[in-house]
Queue: 2 jobs
Job 1
Amino acid sequence: MSKQGLPKLSKDLLKKGKHFILIRNPTDVLASFDKDVPPTILEIGLAALVTIYIELSDQGNPPTIIDAGELQRDPEVIFKFDQNVN
């Protein structure tokens, strides 16, 4: 979860890895958070997720974006697609 990012995670390590961002339908996210705490934009981590995407992209390593709903419906298609991404 983007809001649980590791503040001491090395930027060099981020440059070396291959990354992906798993996204969910915002309605589902809000519904799951609302069970425990009234959701805020900071609580759901959307701003942090955008920051992570921008940082990785600025380093020349843009992450693949995977929709959780599509992954649930057809994981084989998602994983075959991801293997072809450079």
Job 2
Amino acid sequence: MKIQDSTAFVTGANRGLGLAYAKALLAAGARKVYAGARDPSTVPSLEGLVPVRIDVNHAGDIAAAAAQCGDVDLLINNAGVIGSEPLLGANGVNALDTVLNTNLHGVLAVSRAFAPVLRANGGGALVNMLSALSWTSLPGSASYSISKAAAWALTNGLRNELRGQGTLVVGVHAGYIDTDMVKDVDSPKSRPEDIAQAVLDGIEAGASEVLADDTARYVKTGFTAVPSLYLGGIPA
């Protein structure tokens, strides 16, 4: 699909990668971008950017957003959380549930609400922000990796179910991105603007998968290594 004259909805669009998506969409000629955020007052004031209240863990917010934004033909599921509690830690089970609620169940809930909207507007596209950690795990990242691996499988399932209505479903994988989420991580990071642009290019090219940076490409290639990269994580 073309970004020019599209109407997009981006979750978690008040800062970081979500805001980078919103700005890139507007720069590429999107007619309107709904900026989803738990607190709409935190969304910057930009021409063409429409703040919308949405907590992806709140069914009422999701239903209201889908009803309000009936002209959407591009959905970007960007909102996410990160967790560092070890799986075998004292709070491991609850911590995993918290991450899964946003990164998996929230993505499904928003996708279910907006799928009929996309259908009514010609199919459009649905983008899920995944991670290179969908395919491997680092010390301290297990809960996040589990959630993103599950979201990857969810994305593939949605692709099968939405193909009939003409919706392009795009899975995006990237390494660390220079946002508040990983501000304390001492590792190379991509610029949010570069990731957003790579994704928009992928949408316009009709790509089902976007490997948005070198880390994602390295990890994907590492599947065929011996031993496979996912068995040992990404080398420091």
